[in-house]
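Lab notebook page, bench 4
Experiment: in silico fold of construct C2
Operator: M.H.
Input chain length: 96 residues
Purpose: comparison with the prior construct
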Amino acid sequence: METDDMLTITLKLGTRQLNTHIKREEEQIYREAAKLINSRYSFYTNKFPHQKDEVYLTMTALDLAVLYETSEQKEDVSSMLDTLKGLLGEVDTALK
């Protein structure tokens, strides 16, 4: 069921295929996310051979969740640093 603003795509994630209905403008984001998932999946299949597919998918999910949480924390710290720089600028101006 495709409309002008929606699209159905098939993504290969590990050994599985996923059909999903997305906004057309988000297609590249989904494809890049699938590449990232497959890259991490491949890393784990090479590092820990002879495991079940579920094990690789679980390791990949955990790895990406940690990456997400780490990037969220970095963003929070970056935001705080920007705020502190602004406040230091105001203090500097007030002291002159």
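Observations: The mean pLDDT is 87. The longest helix spans residues 53-95.
Next step: discuss at group meeting.
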